[in-house]
């Protein structure tokens, strides 16, 4: 065919499957995962979460935000929780595109968080929503950094009601829970198992 012969093999991202205790076994909750990223699906599957594929989920700003929200809300009718991963903000951080990152955040807020908040009454005051990034990807640096990430938990039954708090990296670092050192502690806070 006129092509040069392959002379090298590039092994990328090799490793072994980590043992992750099934989430339901560890916390008593059955969940699912929605993403356009295979890594996120793989981690979810390793934790025994049900992978849910959404048509039009691209991992870019043109992703099907509304479809992810609808699939998540449908899944919650018979299950305990859904993890919805949005890659668009990370990708725009890598590209250094401030405007598109801002738009991706706005679309996420409108079409995913907004849809969940609109549906909250149908959950009889039981819907807990948590929003957080998996890591920072500043547009100025165009790469991941290891800084702590801000998060917000909406829980209609929460005793903490600071309506003046601003959701940002700066205020997230001094939030009501302080600096959380590990994911286990974070999950316990989210599930109300730790104050």
List the helices and strands and how they pair.
Elements (H helix, E strand, L loop, with lengths): L22 H5 L3 E4 L3 H9 L3 E3 L12 H12 L4 E4 L3 H8 L2 H22 L9 E3 L20 E3 L14 H4 L10 H8 L5
Parallel strand pairs: 1-2, 1-3
Antiparallel strand pairs: 4-5
Given the helix and strand composition, which structural class is it? alpha/beta
What is the CA-CA span between the terminal residues? 66 Å
Mean pLDDT: 90
User: Which percent range fits the helix content?
Assistant: 25-40%
The gyration radius over C-alpha positions equals: 19 Å
What kind of sheet is the major sheet? 3 strands, parallel
- What would the CATH topology be? Alkaline Phosphatase, subunit A
- This entry's quaternary arrangement is single chain
Count every helix, treating DSSP H or I runs of 4 or more residues as helices: 7
Query: Which spans have pLDDT < 50 for at least 5 consecutive residues?
Result: none
Q: What CATH architecture do you see?
A: 3-Layer(aba) Sandwich
How is this structure best summarized?
The chain has a single domain, classed as Alkaline Phosphatase, subunit A (3-Layer(aba) Sandwich). The chain has seven helices and five strands. Strand 1, helix 2 and strand 2 form a beta-alpha-beta unit.
Describe the structure using short key phrases.
195 residues, alpha/beta, Alkaline Phosphatase, subunit A, three-stranded parallel β-sheet, two-stranded antiparallel sheet, globular
